[in-house]
Amino acid sequence: MALKTILNVSYVEPLIGLYPKQSLLQPMWDVILRFVSSDVLQSPLLPIIFSVSFYFICCFPFMIVDIYGKKWYWIQKYKIQPTKEVTWSQVYDTLYVTMWNHLFLILPMTIVQAFVTPLTVIPENAPGMWEFCWQITLFMLIFDLEYYVWHYVHHRNRFLYNHFHALHHRYYSPFSWVTQYLHPWELLSVGVFVTTTPWVIADCHPLTAWGFMVTNIIVSIEAHIGFDFPWSLHHWCPFGLWGGAPKHDMHHQRPQSNYQPFFTHFDRLFGTSTSFRYAGGVIENKKKII
């Protein structure tokens, strides 16, 4: 029996009666269908253009905080490495690499994809909220495994690290623009993982696939911002299953540890987990998180 059939909300709704017949996402989906033309929604260019735009929009506010908010105690008290400041030269450096990758890698691939990728099927009905949530969770777990393997291999193999991944580790104190401060090979690998992961669900709704893409961008940036906010997911996710910025910030300080991008279970299982650094530079002992 297919995974989607096993987890289909139709088995759950009659038992608990918590779900309306119409998906909670239907009003939003109706607005999208009404105000965005079908040609745009069906275009294979939409996910790429949207994801690139969304990435820049999300990074920009943190750049303002890093550059102009150095004396804003109300937010700087959450900085993980409080003695490290972000400079304009670092912003220019990371933006230069990011723009180079998008102009000479993403743009050509986008043009090719426009000719070889079939149009997206746009259904009239939105996915159910349960379907939307469990599928995105599944996609995040799959992506986490894919990148954990990629990341582990590219750290343990000196040739791969020096030629493809070392660029990302030029900054021991990450900030938002470091998220895509990547060698083209790494950006391509991540792009393939994000694009192909929803394919595990044969008829995955486009809204769910886009939701996964947006979620991936948000949590990837959050892992690099260098701030440990009290409302961040790692503070309320049970059993310490989510690492967040404290986990990945420590990876940039101790590159041979914390390979998982988001979750923590594989790092714990394979002994690659180490202590995290929290707001104000406080380091929690490894024994407290395992």
Automatic annotation (TrEMBL):
The keyword Transmembrane helix applies. The chain crosses the membrane at residues 45-69, 103-122, 128-150. Signal peptide: none annotated. Keywords: Membrane, Transmembrane, Transmembrane helix. Residues 137-272 form the Fatty acid hydroxylase domain. It is found in: Membrane. This is Cholesterol 25-hydroxylase-like protein 1, member 2-like. It comes from Saccoglossus kowalevskii (Acorn worm).
